Amino acid sequence: MTSPNYVYTTYIGTSVERVWEALTKSEHTEVYFFGRKVQSTWQVGDEVRFIKENDELDVTGELLEFTLFENITYTWTAPSDTTQRDQPMIVSFALTQLEDTIKLTLMHSNLVDSDIMEESNTFYGLNNGWPAILSNLKSYLETGKPLKAIHV
């Protein structure tokens, strides 16, 4: 039996290099990812961490794949998640160049059935968080500013 996945795609009018940098550098993630700074050496097998503004660990994981300007994949473990899991959740970003536009596809996988129930914290987080984060990323890269009206 396969586990459910959450997939979200957006199109960003910028270069693949700028999207890549925004996904991998903390000075960018803290702007569009609601104050969270990404930290990693970006070597496969090393840790990936997202740190909140108050220096609290929000998410941790292990870098599974890293293909420059194409794909980033890491495990995703939130200390606040109490759901029983056989495997950690996985987050992947795939970038595809379409002339002067980048197609960015996020997949959040290894979900369990209870994650996708509408009343679950995981469903709420995925369904509200990722679209807001990726909309902020798109706006930030295209205009230089994230959206002001959203906060999760």
Secondary structure elements and their pairing?
Blueprint: E1 6-12, H1 16-24, H2 26-32, E2 37-40, E3 47-51, E4 57-67, E5 71-76, E6 89-98, E7 101-109, H3 121-143
Antiparallel strand pairs: 1-7, 2-3, 3-4, 4-5, 5-6, 6-7
Helix pairs in contact: 1-2
Summarize the structure.
This protein has 152 residues and is an alpha+beta fold. Helices cover 26% and strands 34% of the residues.
Name the structural class: alpha+beta
Helix amount: 25-40%
Strand content: 25-35%
Overall radius of gyration: 15 Å
First-residue to last-residue Cα separation: 32 Å
Poorly predicted segments: none
Individual helix count: 3
Largest sheet: 7 strands, antiparallel
Shape: globular
Strand count: 7
- SSE string, helix = H, strand = E? EHHEEEEEEH
| Average pLDDT score | 90
Q: State the strand order across the main sheet.
A: 1-7-6-5-4-3-2
Molecular structure report:
With 152 residues, this protein is an alpha+beta fold. Helix content is 26%, strand content 34%. It has 3 helices and 7 strands; from the N terminus they run E-H-H-E-E-E-E-E-E-H. It has a 7-stranded antiparallel sheet with strand order 1-7-6-5-4-3-2. A hairpin with a 5-residue loop joins strand 3 (47-51) and strand 4 (57-67). Helix 1 (16-24) crosses helix 2. The longest helix has 23 residues, at 121-143. The model has no long low-confidence stretch (mean pLDDT 90).
